[in-house]
């Protein structure tokens, strides 16, 4: 079941972040060191100012965060990957936003990009982001304008170029 985050979910969210965050960078050069969520002021602030959805089924299996029309986060506990958790959360967030959606993803994260492309997302920009002081090439992706009948450029969004 997908529902809105509640305060008591934070420890489970934090655990998923710890177990899953660095997987974004598994195809990048060099090792990345995890900054725990509570210590990563930028990501924690971005998460807490967002609407957070959790996939709950005998515990929290994954979560996603939305700010305006941007999907900021989608992480699934490693034990529950390939079971439709990420797909369901992603679809739920898109429906909740209800207009063309944007997101950013590490350029090398081909598995995530393949999921996003199934929902009509296309790469619209490439830029250099940073995680814990290390550069990462990232892609901005936008949902195809044909899904909602208007151009993605017509929607305003706010995002940080550092991920």
UniProtKB/TrEMBL annotation:
Keyword Transport: no
Domain called N-acetyltransferase: residue spans: 1-142
Statement: the UniProt record of this protein carries the keyword Transcription: no
Group of enzyme by EC: transferase
Top-level taxon in the UniProt lineage: Bacteria
GO MF terms held by the record: mycothiol synthase activity
Keyword tags: Acyltransferase, Transferase
Cited InterPro entries: Acyl_CoA_acyltransferase, GNAT_dom, YpeA/RimI_acetyltransf
EC number: 2.3.1.189
Protein name as catalogued: Mycothiol acetyltransferase
Organism of this sequence: Vreelandella titanicae
């Amino acid at each position: 079941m997908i529902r809105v985050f509640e305060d008591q979910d934070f420890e489970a969210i934090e655990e998923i972040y710890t177990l899953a965050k660095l997987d974004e960078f598994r195809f990048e050069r060099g090792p990345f060191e995890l900054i725990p969520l509570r210590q990563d002021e930028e990501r924690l602030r971005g998460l807490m100012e967002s609407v957070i959805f959790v996939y709950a089924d005998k515990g929290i299996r994954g979560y996603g965060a939305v700010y305006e029309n941007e999907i900021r986060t989608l992480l699934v506990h490693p034990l529950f990957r390939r079971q439709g958790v990420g797909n369901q959360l992603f679809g739920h967030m898109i429906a909740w936003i209800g207009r063309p959606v944007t997101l950013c993803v590490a350029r090398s994260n081909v598995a995530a990009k393949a999921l996003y492309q199934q929902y009509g997302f296309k790469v619209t920009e490439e830029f250099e982001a940073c995680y814990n002081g290390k550069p990462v090439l990232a892609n901005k992706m936008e949902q195809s304008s044909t899904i909602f009948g208007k151009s993605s450029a017509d929607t305003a969004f706010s995002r940080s170029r550092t991920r």
